[in-house]
Design brief:
The protein has 154 residues and is mainly α. The chain has one domain: Four Helix Bundle (Hemerythrin (Met), subunit A), CATH 1.20.120. The protein is built from 6 helices and no strands. Helix 1 runs antiparallel to helix 3, helix 1 packs antiparallel against helix 6 and helix 5 runs antiparallel to helix 6.
Length: 154
């Protein structure tokens, strides 16, 4: 399949959309974790939902990336590109980091906020850690996006 065929373009758009929804949700999580310090309901509303779809999108990003690579007629040659190897490692590390270091904090914040006023200090402590961790995920997404767009050394 060539990169100019409509089916390939649709898969590429689905891949980019999955990355924006999945990792974008992580970025929003960091934003709202930071807002948890200020009085207001918006951060509490954000953390009250489970955002299951966004979690599936983090994994769909990698699956669609592999499908795109397999369907690309140049995939054998592309495997030798250093930028592609970096993107794959970046994605795997970012997805595992999000699953192991960020999602559990989101659950901890949601449970602490559900406990009411006595849970707020626990929620804020978890939120402080979540802000820092979401920045790591954001940087991984930016690195992957820049490398995929510029494809250095191609």
């Amino acid at each position: 399949m060539t990169v100019n065929q409509p089916a390939y373009v649709v898969l590429l758009l689905a891949h980019a959309t999955a990355a924006l929804i999945g990792f974008g949700s992580v970025a929003l999580s960091g934003y709202y974790a930071n807002r948890l310090e200020a009085p207001g309901q918006e951060a509490e509303r954000f953390f009250s939902s489970k955002r299951t779809i966004s979690r599936y999108m983090v994994w769909a990003t990698g699956v669609l990336g592999v499908v795109l690579l397999v369907l690309n007629h140049r995939s054998a040659r592309m495997a030798s590109y250093p930028w592609l190897r970096i993107v794959v490692v970046d994605y795997v590390l970012a997805a595992v980091f999000v699953a192991m270091a960020i999602w559990p904090l989101e659950v901890r914040i949601r449970k602490a906020l559900a406990a009411g006023g006595e849970g707020l200090p626990k929620a804020r402590a978890a939120a402080a850690s979540l802000v820092k961790r979401s920045l790591v995920s954001d940087l991984a997404l930016v690195l992957a996006a820049v490398l995929m767009v510029t494809q250095p050394g191609r």
